[in-house]
Design a protein that fits this description.
By secondary structure, the chain is α+β, with helices and mostly antiparallel strands. It has five helices and nine strands, in the order αβββαβαββαββαβ. The chain folds into two domains: about 60 residues, no CATH class; about 100 residues, Polyamine Oxidase, Chain A, domain 2 (Alpha-Beta Complex), CATH 3.90.660. The two termini are about 15 Å apart. It comes from Papilio machaon (Old World swallowtail butterfly).
Length: about 210
Amino acid sequence: MSWHRNGYKTFFELLLNTYKGGPGLANLNIKLNTEVTKITWPQKPLTPVEVTCKNGEVYRANNVIVTVSIGVLKERYMTLFVPSLPEEKALAIQRLSMGVVDKVVISYLNKWWPNSNVYWFNQTKQERDRAVKDNGWVTYFASVPFGSGNTITLWYSGDAAKLVSIVFFLFLYQRGFMDFNNFGPIINHLTYIIYSDNSISGFKLN
């Protein structure tokens, strides 16, 4: 995501009151790059919650709010919480569905697309129906990130994203780049690709 030309971190700087040299918040203590491996929740009143990190650090608090993504929760709930979560909570986590969104950022030497923020592949119903038979994921769309004049972003979600995450490089090269030709002449000045797949294990599970 983008926050104009300043990066998405600007959004958090505003929330934390550190934007443009702001003083921050007096009672704020953020630990970056600190993975939580265990949350020991109390069985007795007045007993603090213990949060254990991968680096061995342990933090104690009266209350802990867990806001990990559903993907991380599904993968780690059986080992993250001590003692184990009640059966009804574990069942609720198992039954929650997870959406998948893939983002592919492609940089070109020069901008070749028309002046617009969003582009749809396979404009007509006939084109979409024909594509779905073999490559349904190419019916999705692309956008232009803020602050970049020669970069375009491909977006895939749902079943299409799952397929792209499996066969990304082969299919993107064979189909994704070919679809760009619908906008004009063949494009051959690709300079860089960044692929973000939130179905990957770890912090990127969303």
